[in-house]
């Protein structure tokens, strides 16, 4: 060990010591590679997460419940990273806004007819789902259980 001109103690030999200090900042060219990997990883994670949410929502669309709302939530996740999803979400929200305003301007009997048509459609989808899922014998058995 020796003292240098500034009075700091340094090692005489230049051999690496058992404990060496590593610079925590990567080189500038390494940082660009890290940024690219980060962006690609983020894009893949968002694509998969949005896809799972959209697929789950589409599976729920024929059933009564929030199927379309879940699809829009998945589209919102995709819109974080993908410009096409952002444009589609903006278009969908505008059309939904137009629909609600149109319904709001209608007379009470039009609103009643729209509600009745929606109820009939949902009942038909539930009946078809039960028919496909349970079959005729399953529906008969379910009816017998519910009547008891």
TrEMBL record:
Natural source organism: Luedemannella helvata
Keywords: Membrane, Transmembrane, Transmembrane helix
Keyword Membrane: yes
Segments crossing the lipid bilayer: 44-61, 67-85, 108-134
InterPro entries listed in its UniProt record: Uncharacterised_PGPGW_TM (IPR019099)
UniProt entry tagged with the keyword Membrane: yes
Protein name (Swiss-Prot/TrEMBL): TIGR02611 family protein
Residues covered by region (Disordered): 1-26
Bias-annotated ranges (Basic and acidic residues): 1-14
């Amino acid at each position: 060990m020796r003292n240098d001109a500034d009075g700091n103690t340094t090692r005489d030999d230049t051999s690496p010591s058992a404990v060496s200090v590593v610079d925590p900042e990567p080189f500038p060219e390494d940082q660009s590679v890290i940024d690219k990997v980060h962006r690609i990883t983020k894009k893949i994670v968002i694509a998969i997460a949005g896809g799972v949410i959209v697929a789950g929502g589409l599976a729920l669309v024929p059933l009564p419940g929030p199927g379309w709302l879940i699809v829009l939530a998945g589209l919102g996740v995709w819109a974080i990273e993908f410009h096409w999803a952002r444009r589609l979400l903006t278009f969908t929200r505008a059309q939904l806004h137009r629909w609600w305003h149109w319904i709001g301007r209608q007379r009470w009997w039009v609103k009643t007819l729209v509600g009745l048509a929606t109820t009939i459609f949902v009942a038909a989808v539930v009946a078809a789902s039960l028919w496909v899922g349970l079959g005729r014998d399953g529906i008969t058995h379910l009816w017998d259980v519910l009547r008891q």
